[in-house]
């Protein structure tokens, strides 16, 4: 349902940059001989030559359309060059196009806030850059204006003859209102950026420049390829008056059909006949207000600062006789989709330090009987666990849950025509990855218990996945320490070898600063070890009446000679473990930084040449060579 957002205060300059038949351009850059020839990029399947997903402007002149298949395109244009999308795991591999899109984004994002809307389109908020230009070098003060900027299409500007001269006069008007001057500056900036994109990547793009995202999006497609269109405030009414209602974003479906059939609204301008109250009465408060706003070109949607994708997803369709009929066939394809998804989210984490938190499965299916023919296969979600095997396991459980709900009490035969999985709720990883932050101010055992209760239950699935329907937000609107471990029970007594008895008396800091280390857990607040009276009060209270000197050991903390009090007493307040009993799969669930730290810690204990029975890990950190 559309949500109305109030128009933001101040004059904004928003651009929508759309690449021209992008997939074709990527292939032409790989094969320069294709430039200037009618070309189309086709899907990987060979049924009737494959489905066209991008058509060059040379091919469009012959009547080739994206709705065609390769065989039909060859009938319309015998000389068309059909280039197949790369294939991986039996489906289209779009990585080359994603990478090419990232090249473009890296250039466009240099002048303002950048929101990557898809592989081949970007929103830019150029308000600050335009304001700065207007103060320092306003268009009327420029001796020469970028030639590409002078080719701009300015809506509402009369006369097609000598268009560039008319555009130049529009740019340099000294009596222009502030809004138009800002748009002129924004158009010059966009023209420069488009030139940089062409120079650095060999790709052309088109753009729309307006005061909000909605109008910029409409304008970018009005004059293609390699052109840009400006929408002054004075031209908004005429633009929307004749715009077919189905051309407006979010009006292409049922809502647009309802406007046409129930209210006789065929153009966006026709909405001006209805009051806001009438539209609210008919479509509800939010949708009614939104309709009233768009009829007047009002939209308060902000450009989100996002140059990385808000989610990762991959899918596969199985049309007609290729529909999947068995659970085994579904699981086979799910395994391949999960492999691809795992690679992409792992690469995202390695390169961008981002972690995905939600796994969602979507499917389209039908029953072979006529029972509930319109019932849809429910989408299912669960917390995402990293690792191919875990993602595969969880995706299969999600499908099973969805299938049971889809079939209900009927045991009909079914067919799956589409499968897709996605990773969403992607967030930046925390700055500090030290495991020690969980243990500050408490004993190791209580800290482990707290982490298990607070973090793991909220962010990771248990052994039996509790599926939820449609809980994944749209990445960032919308838009988290991932971990999945096993509970440590006091009854699970470890062997006496390599046990650690720890009593930590640090008071927990309100804010974790810097890059911590697990060794900080072994640091005590008082560095003196010469007299028991110098030990922390909690230590003295818990060991009153005992000969503490028989139980003190020295430990090296963070490479410095800060010493703490260590005791083999108070087992109720200590965490004991046997290095041999640690499940490696639990460590695999931790973030990479903690994995390396914990593995190094455990390996150090395993490499020790001699260790007295019952000795503690602090012998390995001691400055005393005889320890």
Gist of the model:
The chain is α+β, with helices and mostly antiparallel strands. The protein has 20 helices and 18 strands.
Structural account:
The chain is of the alpha+beta class and about 625 residues long. About 35% of the residues lie in helices and about 15% in strands. It has helices spanning about 20-30, 55-60, 70-75, 95-110, 125-135, 145-150, 165-170, 180-200, 215-220, 235-240, 255-265, 275-285, 285-295, 325-350, 390-405, 445-460, 475-480, 535-540, 585-590, 590-605; strands at about 15-20, 40, 50-55, 80-85, 85-90, 90, 115-120, 120-125, 155, 205-210, 230, 310-315, 355, 360-365, 380-385, 415-425, 425-430, 470.
SS class: alpha+beta
Q: Stretches where pLDDT falls below 50 for ≥5 residues? A: 442-516, 518-574, 609-615
Q: What portion of residues belong to β-strands?
A: 5-15%
- What is the mean predicted local confidence, pLDDT? 78
Main sheet attributes: strand count, strand direction, barrel closure: 6 strands, mixed
Write the layout of secondary structure elements.
Layout: E1 14-19, H1 22-30, E2 39-42, E3 52-55, H2 57-60, H3 70-76, E4 81-84, E5 87-88, E6 91-92, H4 95-108, E7 113-118, E8 121-125, H5 127-136, H6 147-150, E9 153-154, H7 163-171, H8 178-201, E10 205-210, H9 213-220, E11 228-230, H10 236-241, H11 254-263, H12 276-283, H13 285-294, E12 312-317, H14 327-352, E13 354-355, E14 358-367, E15 380-383, H15 388-407, E16 414-424, E17 427-428, H16 444-459, E18 468-469, H17 475-478, H18 537-542, H19 584-588, H20 592-607
Parallel strand pairs: 2-4, 9-11, 10-11
Antiparallel strand pairs: 1-8, 1-10, 2-3, 5-6, 7-8, 12-16, 13-17, 14-15, 14-16, 15-18
């Amino acid at each position: 349902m559309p949500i109305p957002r109030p128009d933001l205060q101040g004059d904004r300059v928003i651009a929508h940059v759309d690449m021209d038949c992008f997939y074709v351009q990527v292939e032409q850059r790989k094969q320069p001989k294709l430039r200037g020839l009618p070309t189309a990029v086709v899907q990987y399947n060979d049924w009737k030559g494959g489905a066209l997903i991008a058509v060059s402007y040379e091919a469009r002149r012959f009547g080739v359309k994206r709705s065609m298949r390769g065989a039909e395109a060859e009938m319309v244009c015998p000389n068309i060059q059909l280039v197949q999308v790369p294939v991986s795991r039996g489906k289209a591999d779009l990585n080359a196009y994603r990478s090419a899109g990232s090249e473009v984004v890296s250039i466009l994002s240099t002048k303002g806030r950048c929101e990557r809307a898809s592989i081949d389109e970007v929103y830019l908020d150029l308000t600050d850059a335009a304001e700065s230009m207007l103060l320092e070098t306003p268009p009327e003060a420029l001796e020469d204006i970028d030639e590409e900027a002078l080719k701009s299409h300015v809506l509402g500007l009369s006369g097609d003859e000598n268009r560039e001269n008319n555009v130049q006069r529009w740019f340099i008007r000294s009596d222009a209102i502030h809004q138009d001057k800002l748009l002129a500056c924004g158009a010059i900036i966009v023209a420069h950026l488009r030139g940089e994109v062409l120079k650095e990547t060999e790709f052309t793009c088109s753009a729309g420049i307006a005061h909000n995202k909605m109008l910029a999006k409409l304008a970018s497609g009005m004059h293609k390829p390699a052109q840009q269109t400006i929408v002054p405030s004075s031209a908004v009414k005429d633009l929307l008056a004749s715009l077919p209602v189905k051309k407006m974003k979010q009006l292409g479906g049922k809502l647009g059909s309802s406007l046409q059939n129930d209210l006789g609204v065929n153009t966006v301008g026709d909405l001006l006949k209805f009051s806001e109250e009438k539209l609210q009465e008919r479509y509800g408060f939010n949708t009614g207000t939104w309709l009233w706003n768009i009829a007047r070109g009002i939209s308060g949607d902000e450009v989100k600062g996002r140059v990385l994708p808000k989610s990762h997803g991959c899918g596969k369709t199985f049309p007609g006789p290729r529909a999947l009929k068995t659970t085994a066939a579904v699981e086979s394809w799910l395994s391949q989709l999960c492999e691809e998804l795992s690679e992409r989210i792992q690469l995202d984490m390695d390169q961008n330090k981002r972690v995905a938190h939600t796994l969602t499965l979507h499917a389209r299916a039908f029953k072979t009987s006529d029972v509930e023919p319109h019932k849809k296969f429910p989408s299912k979600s669960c917390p995402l666990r990293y690792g191919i095997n875990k993602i595969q396991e969880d995706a299969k459980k999600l499908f099973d849950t969805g299938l049971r709900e889809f079939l209900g009490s009927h045991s009909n035969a079914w067919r799956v025509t589409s499968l897709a999985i996605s990773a969403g709720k992607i967030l930046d990883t925390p700055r500090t990855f030290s495991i020690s932050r969980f243990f500050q101010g408490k004993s190791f055992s209580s800290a482990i218990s707290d982490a298990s209760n607070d973090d793991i239950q909220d962010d990771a699935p248990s052994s039996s996945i509790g599926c939820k329907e449609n809980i994944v937000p749209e990445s960032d609107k919308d838009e988290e320490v991932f971990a999945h471990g096993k509970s440590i029970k006091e009854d699970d007594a470890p062997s006496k070898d390599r046990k650690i008895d720890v009593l930590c008396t640090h008071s927990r800091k309100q804010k974790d600063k810097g890059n911590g280390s697990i060794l900080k857990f072994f640091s005590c607040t008082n560095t003196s070890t010469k007299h028991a009276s110098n030990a922390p009060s909690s230590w003295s209270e818990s060991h009153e009446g005992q000969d503490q000197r028989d139980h003190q050991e020295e430990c090296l903390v963070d490479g410095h000679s800060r010493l703490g009090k260590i005791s083999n007493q108070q087992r109720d307040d200590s965490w004991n473990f046997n290095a041999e009993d640690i499940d490696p799969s639990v460590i695999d669930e931790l973030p990479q930084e903690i994995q390396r730290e914990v593995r190094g810690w455990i390996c150090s204990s395993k490499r020790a040449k001699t260790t007295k029975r019952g000795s503690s890990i602090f012998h390995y950190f001691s400055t005393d060579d005889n320890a």
